[in-house]
Amino acid sequence: MSVHYHWQNIRLLLNEGFTVQELRRFCATVPAFRREFPDHIAKRTIVRYLVKRAEDISQGESLLIWAKIHNPVRYRLHAPYYVTGQSPTIWPRPTPRFKPAQMFRRQVGQSVWIGLYLTGTLAILAIGFGLVAVLFN
């Protein structure tokens, strides 16, 4: 029995989870996907090649293993990658990357860290200027 993949999810994983340089490095180092791309080629073209090549030579599993090793967070985010109990031509809608509540918590968390960083920097500057004033007066 052959394995059927959600190629749309794999394409989304490669587009959003990896840089152009990482995808080029993968193409240069993995023999089954070996191909050189000129510098002006867009990332979506490389992703299209990788997905098409994996589909043509039945190497979807090796592509997914590489992605899971090099970016496990994105790998979990864009799952499922395997079609189970349905026709491989029916694709589920991709899950949203972040829910609004998660985005809000992330922004608040970043704001807190930025505030602490600025407060600490200002405190160090104040102490430094205070020492300079004491020493040179």
Q: Can you describe what's shown?
A:
The chain is an all-alpha fold and 137 residues long. It folds into two domains: 7-77; 98-137. It is 64% helix and 0% strand. Helix 1 packs antiparallel against helix 3 (43-56), helix 2 (20-29) runs parallel beside helix 3 and helix 3 crosses helix 4. The N and C termini lie far apart (85 Å).
Largest sheet: none
Radius of gyration from CA coordinates? 23 Å
Estimate the global geometry from the Cα principal axes: elongated
Q: How many domains comprise the coordinates?
A: 2
The string of secondary-structure elements, in order, is HHHHHH
Intertermini distance: 85 Å
Number of helices: 6
Residue-averaged pLDDT:
81
Helix content: 55-70%
> How many distinct beta strands?
0
Specify the structural class: mainly alpha
Low-confidence stretches: none
Proportion of strand residues:
under 5%
State the gist of this model:
The chain contains 6 helices and no strands. The protein is mainly α.
